[in-house]
Amino acid sequence: MNNTATSTLIQSTRDNINSQLIAGGVTKVPTAKFYFPGTYTEATYPVRYTGYGNNAGDKVTIKAAQAQTTPNDGSHIGADGDCGTAIANRGGDGKYTFTLLHKAAYLTFTPYYSHGFADDVKVTQIKVTANEALAGEFDFDDSGIKLSTRPTASADNRSITLTLNGGNGFGIPSAPDYAKNAAIMVLAPGKYTGFTVEYTLYDQATQVGGTVTKVYDKLTLNEGKNRPVAANLAVTHYNANAYSMWDATQYYWKGYEDVQPILNGKTNDNYPKSTTDPRWYNPAPAVTPPASAKYDCKDCPNMNELRWYAQHGAPHWDNNTLWAAMKHLHKGGMWLKKQGVIAVANSTSTDIMKKIAPNGLDYTAVNNGAAAKYTNNSIESGKPSDISDYFYLPALGDYYNNGELLNVGISGSYWSCTSNPNDSNGGAFALIISKEKVEASFFFRKHGFCIWKADKAPESE
What we know:
Shape: elongated
Distance between the termini: 59 Å
Number of helices: 7
Strand content: 35-45%
């Protein structure tokens, strides 16, 4: 309280907040009593609230490191920089009442993922950054935070990090839901530039984590106002229905999506087992020229195109890009040059690449399956610098024997539309990617590999 008669700030000596919290079993209360030493007779007095545990009446500290334990619970803001002012009015009983006007700014984040995450996937912290000071010690008077003396921007005050549930995080719903994960941050009000928000995600099942960044550039935060921020997290999502036996008429887990194994090493007995199952592979015989796909694999690249990717795709293994499949987070995948880029570099055209492999043979016409195999072990690490020349294939793994999911995040297996003319047991060509190699080769058609199109991974629409 500001004693206007003496122009001194007098701090309250006690209050009844804790007793109300204990009695009510709650984390916040709408009203409270504060006790001040001395005698007060004026009709009104200015009141300042400078935050929990702050003994200074003319300074407010917005913390750069904030923490929230429970979703949609702002009880932590008092310790993290909440502040306010009021006018205390004397009543007939000699007691003073006031209504606090909050003077900090507030952001309430409700991140979500429209494709849906498993309960194992959490948002563990949220970090905001700007070109101006968001945090630090600010001058404070009866009108609130003095932005005219805002601290000089530095690495220590240009960002605020809000840690959620001790770092264990909150769940991520498929639509904004305050009860599930509303996260509340206190900031200094004002106009900001270069404003970015980083969401740190972690999958407790796959043990994969990463950040998703949203750039707002310019942003104005008004004092006393809570601004909701509902962000659909920009994590590329790959289709769980992309897996198929070679050229089946239905994808691998059609009709059994609810029991589809979605983590490495998991299996389910409802995998396709019989030639009468529409999920079974195309039984086209081993003939010359090789049979071409008619169903699921008809739009996949042919074996000639796979050879061009493997031999001239300048493969780069990227173990940092975050992506999602089957409700979980993963990393790992290969950047390959697009067909048009390969064509220009090799004085050919994409039409010719479909008809002739780099060695001059047409593997869609000749019986030369054994010689068709090509392995490239010269793999660069990281993203290529000329990223627009490339496309990304995630390491989606495959369903191998007995419907077991293997190698997600480790390798990817992608069908071609070309069968193997030398394999009477049902072989077909596919492209395999891993951090060690890119390989165009032949495999049993019963494997659950991915369906794709040239220069395009099987993303969800």
